[in-house]
């Protein structure tokens, strides 16, 4: 019997799209859930809030708010482009249509995929560590070999779920995201209610109180990372009911939910713990790597703190699953438009998922995790830090692609001028400014844990990833002649379709 949730009521089973995906598999709620899940809110705020507070003290909420501005402006660009070109290739298709196949393949395809793969290695490692700790296997949690084996097992599990279909993935995400948000809201409410918690101040949101541009820029860059990932939901636009409209709405809604969740948690944590440099204070460097693990026991009690630990574990696994779903659909679109080998365009005949792409990306993430772990634990940490450079690169390019693509229509209405022109332009410029600032900071050998001939390892990994992309692009141009020859018109139609 067909699953009635696969299509709108009364319309029967969902039909296959031009690429073979199952159309109408999810609605607005599932799309928002997928977007929030990929961001991993519990994990992201746990590992970021402490470092932001070390940088700007009790102005951390202001940094969260300011870091959100370019994200929201970019979300408007994603929404408008998706309305015009609802393709699961998203940034690849949009930047190709705006700037041509070279930019589309490199920034809309390669950069996105590399950033996601690196993030997947981090998420699987974090999920594995927390899982072993929850099971009481603390000695194994301290063993890189045991953590890596467990992380590979988690990757295999989420690959299996993603392989079986978007509807199953979305159903799993309802539970995982619900646990995260419940844990964060419960933590915040309990922190505010604890004896000694101070009353939050609106001055913590003052954007003009930062002590110079340096701390401000560093804090905002950190905050960009914790919002990253919501765009994965748009890769499911061809499987979403009324995807050209709903996916864009879900992108904006998910970013607003993230902002509210992060601000509430930050206010609660600062109110309870303060920004002191000792004990549970958020200014204590020993707490920066995971403030929720430090604060959960005194706020919630030892038993309930386990729930917060579970929430962070679930958050990492949840983001891992959504990252895999989004990445496999990106490669599907690239192959369907003739920019990758045809194998990536294969869709499972029953599950209607990009089977080969899902398995390939899951296996590649596992291989990258093992490789980076064998090289050095510090190397893996620096690889994670370089993601910010890649995020700013492709977000900024996509926002500017919106302005350039719609440039001839900006005078049609005030709405078009603002939502397709002014706001995306501001978002794109902010992102590229963040890219430049990030590259400058990462060049310092003291940034991160590694360096080479006086150059920061984080910069080499970030810039190196983009440089490797240019080499891969040169190889791709020799193999996919039609895609690179026909230019912007190539992604207006499918090169490879299902038989």
From TrEMBL:
It is a multi-pass membrane protein. It is found in: Cell membrane. It comes from the Bacteria. Keywords: Cell membrane, Membrane, Transmembrane, Transmembrane helix. The keyword Transmembrane helix applies. The chain crosses the membrane at residues 28-53, 59-78, 99-120, 140-162, 174-193, 213-230, 251-275, 307-325, 356-377, 383-405, 417-435, 455-476. The keyword NADP does not apply. This is APC family permease. It comes from Streptomyces durmitorensis.
């Amino acid at each position: 019997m067909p699953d009635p949730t696969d299509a709108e009521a009364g319309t029967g089973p969902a039909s296959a799209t031009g690429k073979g995906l199952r159309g109408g598999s999810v609605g607005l709620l599932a799309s928002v859930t997928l977007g929030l899940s990929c961001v991993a809110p519990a994990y992201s705020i746990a590992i970021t809030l402490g470092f932001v507070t070390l940088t700007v003290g009790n102005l951390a909420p202001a940094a969260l708010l300011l870091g959100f501005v370019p994200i929201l402006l970019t979300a408007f660009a994603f929404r408008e482009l998706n309305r015009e070109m609802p393709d699961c290739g998203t940034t690849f298709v949009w930047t190709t249509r705006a700037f041509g196949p070279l930019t589309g393949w490199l920034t809309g395809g390669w950069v996105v995929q590399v950033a996601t793969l690196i993030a997947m290695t981090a998420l699987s490692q974090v999920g594995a560590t927390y899982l072993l700790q929850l099971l009481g296997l603390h000695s194994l949690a301290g063993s890189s070999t045991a953590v890596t084996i467990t992380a590979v097992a988690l990757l295999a599990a989420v690959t299996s779920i993603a392989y079986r279909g978007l509807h199953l993935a979305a159903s799993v995400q309802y539970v995982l995201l619900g646990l995260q948000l419940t844990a964060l809201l419960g933590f915040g409410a309990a922190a505010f209610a604890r004896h000694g918690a101070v009353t939050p101040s609106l001055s913590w949101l003052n954007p003009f109180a930062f002590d110079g541009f340096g701390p401000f820029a560093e804090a905002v860059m950190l905050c960009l990372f914790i919002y990253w990932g919501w765009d994965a939901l748009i890769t499911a636009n061809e499987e979403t009911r009324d995807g050209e409209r709903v996916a864009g709405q879900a992108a904006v809604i998910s970013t607003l939910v993230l902002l509210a969740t992060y601000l509430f948690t930050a206010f609660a944590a600062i109110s309870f713990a303060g920004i002191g440099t000792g004990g549970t204070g958020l200014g204590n460097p020993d707490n920066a790597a995971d403030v929720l693990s430090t604060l959960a026991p005194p706020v919630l009690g030892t038993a309930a703190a386990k729930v917060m630990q579970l929430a962070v574990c679930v958050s990492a696994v949840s983001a891992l699953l959504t990252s895999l779903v989004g990445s496999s659909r990106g490669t599907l679109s690239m192959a369907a438009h003739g920019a990758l080998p045809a194998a990536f365009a294969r869709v499972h005949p029953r599950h209607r998922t990009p089977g080969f792409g899902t398995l390939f990306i899951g296996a590649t993430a596992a291989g990258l995790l093992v490789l980076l772990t064998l090289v050095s634990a510090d190397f893996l940490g620096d690889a994670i830090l370089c993601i910010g450079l890649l995020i700013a690169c492709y977000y900024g390019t996509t926002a500017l692609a919106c302005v350039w693509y719609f440039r001839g229509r900006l005078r049609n209405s005030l709405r078009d001028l603002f939502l397709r022109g002014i706001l995306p332009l501001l978002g794109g410029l902010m992102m590229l400014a963040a890219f430049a600032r990030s590259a400058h900071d990462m060049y310092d050998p003291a940034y991160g844990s590694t360096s080479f001939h006086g150059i920061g390892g984080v910069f080499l990994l970030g810039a190196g990833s983009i440089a490797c992309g240019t080499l891969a692009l040169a190889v791709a141009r020799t193999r996919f002649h039609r895609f690179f020859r026909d230019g912007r018109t190539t992604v207006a139609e499918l090169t490879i379709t299902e038989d």
